[in-house]
Amino acid sequence: MELEEWLLVLEKVRRERPLIHHITNTVVANITANITLAFGAAPVMAKAPEEVAEMVAQARALVLNIGTPSAPSREGMLCAGRAANKCGIPVVLDPVGVGATRFRTELVTELLAEVQFAVIRANASEMGYLAGRAVRPKGVDSEASGFGQAASEEQRSEIARAVARRFGTVAAVTGQRDFIAAPGRLARVDNGNELLTAVTGTGCMATAVIAAFTAVARDAFVSTAAALAAYGVAAELAAERAGGPGTFQAHLFDAAYSLTADQLRERARLTLL
Amino acid sequence: MELEEWLLVLEKVRRERPLIHHITNTVVANITANITLAFGAAPVMAKAPEEVAEMVAQARALVLNIGTPSAPSREGMLCAGRAANKCGIPVVLDPVGVGATRFRTELVTELLAEVQFAVIRANASEMGYLAGRAVRPKGVDSEASGFGQAASEEQRSEIARAVARRFGTVAAVTGQRDFIAAPGRLARVDNGNELLTAVTGTGCMATAVIAAFTAVARDAFVSTAAALAAYGVAAELAAERAGGPGTFQAHLFDAAYSLTADQLRERARLTLL
Amino acid sequence: MELEEWLLVLEKVRRERPLIHHITNTVVANITANITLAFGAAPVMAKAPEEVAEMVAQARALVLNIGTPSAPSREGMLCAGRAANKCGIPVVLDPVGVGATRFRTELVTELLAEVQFAVIRANASEMGYLAGRAVRPKGVDSEASGFGQAASEEQRSEIARAVARRFGTVAAVTGQRDFIAAPGRLARVDNGNELLTAVTGTGCMATAVIAAFTAVARDAFVSTAAALAAYGVAAELAAERAGGPGTFQAHLFDAAYSLTADQLRERARLTLL
Predict the structure, then answer these.
(1) Arithmetic mean of pLDDT, B206-222
(2) Are B97 and A46 a contacting pair at CB < 8 A?
(3) B45 and C67 in contact by Cβ < 8 A?
(4) Residue A253 has what pLDDT?
């Protein structure tokens, strides 16, 4: 992975403006649509089983985020995931709170059995659960708490690799440092800011950015690392102007919108391991 | 339509503080409630078939926005729309993504058959579909993409007039320039800012403002044009203070909240055609 | 209630970072999660009947907000409320729009019959309805309208006391001045800012803050008063930096996040009556 290769992904998103279909939770629907737009892609939200397959067919990537699961959203996710696999567009999974309740765990298990995911993005406790190391997450923003912080860097990278191997996918464990694994490959991203833990849905937004980048890229490992670096740099730039989590969120969209290749080149801390 | 006539609508909204009932999509529920408040009206969100008719009876306008359609929301919209017609309050339709899936198209067709709308607000591709010129929209913010930009001004005004005629309603095609048509009447609004295309739900917010203005006005053609001019001027004022889409959204509510008759008189670019 | 006693509650929230389970309306899900985080607690949103009992068992407080009621959310609320009572964690009710429709009224009646609430937070018209003084609320933000403003201070405190007595709970009537009652006890909080009436969901956010504070406190009367004072002071600090409701909302999260004991001690206007 050449530096220039992933620097080009952002540019490609902006040029091609891919349509990204999101089935996501009600808490973050607005902000994940906005971060998608800010990075230059076009979001569409559709969840009804009656229409998701048709919408997927027009999109270039699909996000499945299980944050506020329900019986109807389960059905919509399964339909959309299968349709996306059939169309050959990448599907990105955000298994919010997997392991916290049987309902979420069964939903994720079913999705993983029925749908081939290009990328799974989660925090350390959720990803640890998928890797077969059951730990209870705490809240929807568990980046900021619980296992997320407790896990050592070694554990986090090991968890990412285990999930990548187990599901034949790209696995991104995000937190203070992000680890991105694909079978046989590993990268680390050291960008971001602590204020990301004080705003709800910042993990879900990372997933949305990954989907936007992966929609235009040939290599989901590269696009996921590129997305997390770009998102992390935008967060750093936003934090410089923020007085707290409320203004930080507003500036995050501003920074993503005007992020330049030079800013990325200068600030991105992406390491192949 | 005298200039002073539509200038007075904003004042009337603030004085009468009409209750506006919204049945809308989960992506924009928060921001459409906030833009309703910012312009001086009072929003209420209620979607359950069990209660919508009773809520409509207390409101002075109803918004039906099909952005994230589902079987239960379909039923709620039909109940509410019929009740609003019975009460004689104006109903405003936002046919988000009509033509993109059969489910949305059938829902809009059913709504148009069962409910008399005072106003329909959409972008060029959605309105083109309603006018019988099928084009596929791209994403929920298709103002910024696809047919929306491709359509010439002439096409856009023609589409507005065709929908106005076909459904006996006011039809507003929004985009870089807005065209407002009623049977035999046509107006153009040249206000707004490009940042509106970088924030999700700015079209849905325009629809909410139209509903607030139409609730207090005698003439839906006048109130729709007045709403789009006021909203566009607020967007221009917000853009002057914004560093990107995140701060733009915050300033948009500020600008709407403190918009004065003088600012409107000075900046509104409303032309009768 | 010593001044220092309630000053300590905020500190305790930040130290213990309690998990707060919210079942709330789609309009405010994002901002109530964010205000929970800003004050130092951890939000989790889960609504499906299939999982709420299991989620409640991991939480330290539960919020039931009926803002956009539906048949499935009714079931989830009942399950979660009963489970919370069984676990012995406090449940906080926000009866948005009770009295406005039969559906809401029946839902609230059922919840009050089946669940023991630690705190009920509402505006004067909603609380008046619960006290047996039926008045129709106007919109979801009726703080800014209708009975909310019309009720005299004496009426408001009387209503709070009536609900506290009737349901054996802490009852908080919020508005320009907040009245907090428990059987035999009454307090008043004079903090806040008019901009709270120009943003949707500011009442719902107050409820969320009460839940976060009550999760860590022994005395729900103290924690409710402390929460409303802290929230009101944050609103005052935010208003000093705001240019209107949009920037006010962003600054509200900033102010809550960085609120110090000194700021609270200096500005809180909490009176035992």
Answers:
(1) 97
(2) yes
(3) yes
(4) 98
* pTM, two decimal places: 0.95
Q: Which residue of C has its CA nearest to A245?
A: C254
Helix segments in chain B, DSSP class H: 3-16, 29-38, 52-56, 71-87, 102-114, 124-130, 147-150, 153-167, 202-216, 220-241, 245-258, 261-267
Q: How many domains does chain B have?
A: 1
Q: How far is CA C250 from CA A156, B77, C209, in A?
A: 33, 32, 16
ipTM for this prediction: 0.94
Residue of chain A with shortest Cα separation from B246:
A250
Q: Which domain holds residue B159?
A: 3-272
**Model confidence pLDDT, tens digit, residues A162-211:** 999 999 999 999 999 999 999 999 999 999 999 999 999 999 999 999 99
Give pLDDT, residue B144. 37
Subunits close to B (at least 3 CB pairs below 8 A):
A, C
Q: Do C58 and A100 touch (CB under 8 A)?
A: yes
Which of B16, B20, B24, B30 to mutate to test binding with chain C, by most C CBs within 10 Å of its CB? B30
Query: Does any CB of chain A come closer than 8 Å to the CB of residue B246?
Result: yes
CB of C26 within 8 Å of any CB in chain A? yes
Q: Is C110 exposed, middle or buried (0-12, 13-18, 19+ CB in 10 A)?
A: middle
> Which CATH number fits the domain that encloses residue C195?
3.40.1190.20
pLDDT tens digits along A5-54:
888 999 999 999 999 999 999 999 999 999 999 999 999 999 999 999 99
Tens digit of each residue's pLDDT (9 = 90 or more) over B219-265: 999 999 999 999 999 999 999 999 999 999 999 999 999 999 999 99
- Residue C91: which of C156, C168, C14, C148 has the closest Cα? C168
- Subunits with 3+ C-beta pairs closer than 8 A to C: A, B
Of B86, B73, B79, B50, nearest in space to C102 by CA: B50
